[in-house]
Design a protein that fits this description.
297 residues; Diaminopimelate Epimerase, Chain A, domain 1; 18-stranded mixed sheet; 6 helices; Phenazine_PhzF-like; ARAD1C00462p; isomerase activity
Length: 297
């Protein structure tokens, strides 16, 4: 079976920035099961690979499956924006819907890139982490000593959970290194973060705002891996900050991630809140084509 693919850099403004994503086009009627998709994702060995199933019914709706090299995901941010930009440019459209495991994602596309109203079920866990939790996971002593005593843990959807670690300066952010092992989900709400699921560490530093846009510098690490752009973690963080501030209505954020890796990624998010509840999370950004070809499966 021959399948067309593209590799794109998501959240990039220039070549070799952003987070790489493999996009595989699945023709209507193709016999491509989930096990084979997993093998293809492992072969690409990027943080995520998406499989976009062609439709022939004239609707602007597409089924999209998201895989890491090791498992399928219900949602991930940079695969969402990469898929939005790819489909919009390929089909010359300005709106549509992605159907992913976490639910339908309406999107628009324009001069500012793709904008997706993401499926979300924001949950702030009762348990907070302490520096000792990071020490046990094997974070360096230099970063452990500047981690706050109480670190909130937030799930953006079930199965996508991140510890939100506020630091005081870019100098502290530069100290972040990948830990020996992942943070433990023990003690977290099992319906959102069951035993064995991943808890990422998302470090952030608040930066001066530009007008109404709140700006943040961020880094996301798990064991032996740093991600240049993590839309799901960014969505969880901005949802948490919105709720913690007590804001109602719309709040705009821009997050700059991946600088320390040499892969600057510009992530735009707008949250809409009612008292104590996030009602809308819109994730936005650009995507740049890097390569294309045909794979044999």
């Amino acid at each position: 079976m021959e399948l067309k693919f593209e590799v794109v850099d998501v959240f990039a403004r220039a070549p070799f920035e952003g987070n790489p994503l493999a996009i595989v086009q699945v023709p209507k009627g193709a016999n491509l099961d989930q096990q084979t998709k997993q093998k293809i994702a492992k072969e690409f060995n990027l943080s995520e690979t998406v499989f976009i199933h062609d439709n022939d019914d004239g609707s602007n709706q597409w089924t999209v499956d998201i895989f890491t090299p090791f498992s399928e995901l219900p949602f991930a941010g940079h695969p969402t924006i990469g898929s939005v930009c790819f489909l919009s440019e390929k089909n010359s459209i300005t709106s549509g819907t992605l159907n992913i495991k976490a639910g339908p994602i309406p999107f628009t596309y324009g001069p500012n890139g793709g904008l997706a109203s993401i499926a979300h079920d924001v949950h702030i866990h009762d348990k907070v982490l302490s520096p000792s939790d990071f020490e046990q996971a094997g974070f360096s002593p230099e970063i452990v000593k500047v981690i706050p005593e109480r670190v909130p843990v937030v799930s953006i959807v079930k199965g996508m959970t991140f510890a939100q670690v506020k630091l005081q300066s870019l100098e502290e952010l530069a100290l972040v290194k990948c830990p020996r092992e992942d943070l433990s989900p023990r003690g977290l709400n099992a319906s959102y973060c069951p035993e064995g699921s991943l808890v990422g560490a998302y470090f952030y530093v608040e930066q001066p705002s530009e007008g109404e846009v709140k700006k943040l510098r961020t880094r996301m690490v798990i064991s032996d891996f740093e991600d240049p752009a993590t839309g799901s973690a960014a969505s969880a963080l901005t949802s948490y900050l919105t709720l913690a501030s007590g804001a109602s209505g719309k709040t705009k954020f821009q997050l700059l991630q991946g600088v320390e890796m040499g892969r600057a990624s510009y992530i735009n998010i707008e949250t809409t809140a009612e008292p104590s509840k996030i009602t809308v999370v819109e994730l936005g950004g650009h995507s740049r084509k890097f390569s294309s070809g045909t794979l044999l499966a």
